[in-house]
Amino acid sequence: MTLQQLKYVIEVATHGSMNEAAKRLFISQPSLSNAIRDLEQELRITIFERTNKGITLSKEGVEFLSYARQVVEQAELLENRYLNAKPSPQHFSVSTQHYAFAVNAFVKLVQQHGHDEYELALRETKTYEIIQDVKSLRSEIGILYLNEFNAKVINKLLKDAGLVFTSLFTAKPHIFISVNNPLAKQESVAIEQLQDYPYLSFDQGEYNSFHFSEEILSTLSHPKSIQVNDRATLFNLLIGLNGYTISTGVLSADLNGNEIIPVPLECEESINVGWISHKSTSLSNLGVAYVQALHEAIGLQD
Q: Where does the HTH lysR-type domain lie (predicted)?
């Protein structure tokens, strides 16, 4: 087993593709595949499951990757200390539902901890993919919410994937609407008052189950409904069509301006927003710093 093989495994796991990893490592795809296969044979484990749809980390691979990262990080510290080598880029990835505070925290992380070189990733993506990203260690942290309706399903997925949920905050539901929406002047809004306005939600793709919805009360019927894939489009439609979406009420004027506002929704539901990570691995220094930045971002916006 060599340090180079460990670096190969980390690169493949990060990008989820032999071809992409080979390009970034400046080696041929067959050479990379053979190096990893030799490592698997030497250790008598399967690090990557290979299917027609691509490759994913096996259960053994997830554990191996956590150790490999520690070894590579320690080796880089030694090189930097004694060989006066150029510091290697910092690595950190987070997958999240579409929350402005998650972006704010990421910005703060880069501002405070970003050195000359880094390779970071912020993925605003679908609920199921967040769980899969953290399960495969493509992302160190995932951000999603639990409530009374989805908790049983989500918690089972987290348990099966070896993940743990840590709460950040609990919020009462709000609607996000344009400041020009007729409902914007009200102190709170009843569900019945929303029937005439387009309901906007995030598409969950193949796993478009009510339990994976980013919006609570997902089982309610809506006369006018539009699904989108990104936060910018959703906010444009909130303004252009006087639409609404249901979320936590936590917004960022720095990122989203002052044209969108939260208004409390009259219902008994609550939203428990938190972060998920592998229970078998410790957070990296950047992971710890990002969690701290999350708390600070939420505190500034509450």
A: 1-58
Tokens matching residue 44: 């008598």
- Residue type, position 135, single letter: K
- Beta strands across the sheet bearing 163-171: 118-124, 90-96, 141-146, 271-278, 163-171
Q: What angle do CA 263, 245, 101 make, to 5 degrees?
A: 75
E-state strands within the chain: 48-51, 54-57, 90-96, 118-124, 141-146, 163-171, 174-178, 189-190, 199-202, 225-228, 245-247, 260-266, 271-278
CB 95 within 8 A of CB 139: yes
CB-based contact 217:173 (threshold 8 Å) = yes
Packing angle, helices 127-135 and 151-160, rounded to 10: 20
Q: Mind listing the pLDDT tens digit for each residue in 44-90?
A: 999 998 887 778 888 888 889 888 888 888 887 777 767 665 666 67
List of residues 6+ apart from 154 with CB closer than 8 A: 127, 131, 144, 146, 165, 211
**3-84, CATH topology level:** Arc Repressor Mutant, subunit A (1.10.10)
The predicted-structure confidence for 219-275, as pLDDT tens digits, reads as follows: 888 899 999 998 889 999 999 999 999 998 887 666 666 889 999 999 989 999 999
Question: Quick one: pLDDT at residue 292?
Answer: 95
**Per CATH, the architecture of 91-300 is what?**
3-Layer(aba) Sandwich (3.40)
- SS3 label, residue 21: helix
For residue 188, the one-letter residue type is S
C-alpha to C-alpha distances, 124 to 65, 100, 173, nearest whole angstrom: 24, 10, 21
Is residue 302 predicted with pLDDT exceeding 60? no
Share of the chain above pLDDT 90, in %: 57
**Number of other CB atoms surrounding residue 118 within 10 Å:** 16
246: helix, coil or strand? strand
